[in-house]
Amino acid sequence: MMDMEVLIVEDDPLHRSYLREQVSAALPECGTIHEAENGLQGETLARTHRSMHIVMDLQMNARNGIEAARTIWRERPDTCILFWSSYADEAYVRGVSRIVPNGAAYGYVLKSTSEERLKLALRSIFIENQCVIDNEVRGMQQRSFAQASGFSDSEYEILMDIALGLTDRAIADRRNLSLRSVQNRLQQIYSKLDVHQTNPSAREPSAREDAVFNLRARAVTVAMLRKLLNYGALEKAEAELRHWLRKQ
Amino acid sequence: MMDMEVLIVEDDPLHRSYLREQVSAALPECGTIHEAENGLQGETLARTHRSMHIVMDLQMNARNGIEAARTIWRERPDTCILFWSSYADEAYVRGVSRIVPNGAAYGYVLKSTSEERLKLALRSIFIENQCVIDNEVRGMQQRSFAQASGFSDSEYEILMDIALGLTDRAIADRRNLSLRSVQNRLQQIYSKLDVHQTNPSAREPSAREDAVFNLRARAVTVAMLRKLLNYGALEKAEAELRHWLRKQ
DNA sequence: CAGAGTTCTGCGGGTTCCCGCAGGTCCTTT
DNA sequence: AAAGGACCTGCGGGAACCCGCAGAACTCTG
């Protein structure tokens, strides 16, 4: 146990040094601490050092934490990874829980938590091999899987597709559905996002019926404002889309 | 000059204490340093202390830096504000230069710059009343105002409108244009964003013409990926939209 | 197996979008 | 004054969208 090593992947220098400090304080049995300043470098260092204990930021420039974690877990699924993020966006939570391997120990704590809880999380994950999810993140998971405005995975896929700007036809081709099925999915998405909201004025069915919103575009924005989508998710989806377009 | 006071507005505790350190090191003539941890609190403290020297983060939870700066400058247009941000998104740069009053001294430096340059910027702005814009930010400004994929203000407005999910009709009403004019603007936007890109396969005009993209939705995503839009800009535009909807 | 629930699919319409064509109003340039 | 450019506007058509209706196919339960 004396040769435990930890890899820190974090692009902000201040946060990185803070993490190093906290790690060495919380884990006296820790020998060397390696540092990477983006996801790409994180993958490389994890590979060369065969890191089993990683604490990593989401939202980095070169390659975000979810992408990096996926390739790392693909090579060694029993790696312990603690995600340390500023935000609990549903897009992040969903992205993480989508890639975590069966039985792997991982954690998700916010940067705003206290030092004590960070240290506790470090020990729980790296020593006890036990998952630690921050309360607020946990709450997000609940709301996500419950159907209170919760999206199934397939609905989420289609939401990404319209965010990318695909046509109904293109979505149907990509997801192997009929055109009408795609439109049905869109209907559910629109209702779950409550996109039909207009001004709460008199709802008289007068001639002045206001079709203020283009539902397709509106859905994307509402999803962004609700943190269902964010920049990282868009970037990732865009890469996958390009990959798919080549094979057409 | 001995009673100079500085107000720091920054939500991250680590960055905040780092800023305090740098400010007191760079400005020995500085007496008190106040701190706020979000834009709303920043506005309040700026008002009560009549702060003339502010260094402030963009992208905060309660109210982002641009909003806060606008209300502060509205009350006292000769306030010196140094924006200290992680990113040089065109949305931020454009948002800042849209609200800076005539003749006001302000600065925009990235968090990734060296301590020396940060200190230099602090002295230049607060002592010499001189604008300091980081090189990378400056480059963004150039690209933005040159028409190399640069958007005029009116085009930018319409881009925001379709991002919000408005219909052509609604945009026309809102911006006092005819329906056709809005559609013309959209045409320009589509071409400037180069949204017509399909797979670079054989461009034969065969029957299998691929209309893969819904231009309207695609434009929004491309704008986001190019940092022309970001979450803060969306949030702000959404608030303005709600305000407009009431008056309808 | 019957029946109820959920999802997939086609049809058809009304509406909105995308955009070429053409005429109009304001400029600036020579 | 004439010629050119930049912008706004109406017309019209083909395509894509939004969505109600209604029949298949699949599941789940008793």
What does this structure look like?
The structure is a homodimer of 248-residue chains. By secondary structure, chain A is α/β, with parallel strands linked by helices. The first copy, chain A, is 52% helix and 12% strand. Chain A has helices at residues 13-26, 39-49, 65-75, 90-99, 115-126, 135-145, 153-164, 168-175, 179-192, 215-225, 231-246, and strands at residues 4-9, 30-36, 53-56, 80-85, 106-110, 132-133. A 6-stranded parallel sheet of chain A has the order 2-1-3-4-5-6. In chain A, helix 1 links the parallel strand 1 and strand 2. The first copy, chain A, starts with a strand and ends with a helix. Mean pLDDT of chain A is 89; it is low at 199-208. The interface between A and B is large, with 41 and 41 residues. Chain A binds a DNA duplex (30 and 30 nucleotides) through residues 167-169, 177-181, 183-184, 186-187, 190, 211, 214-216.
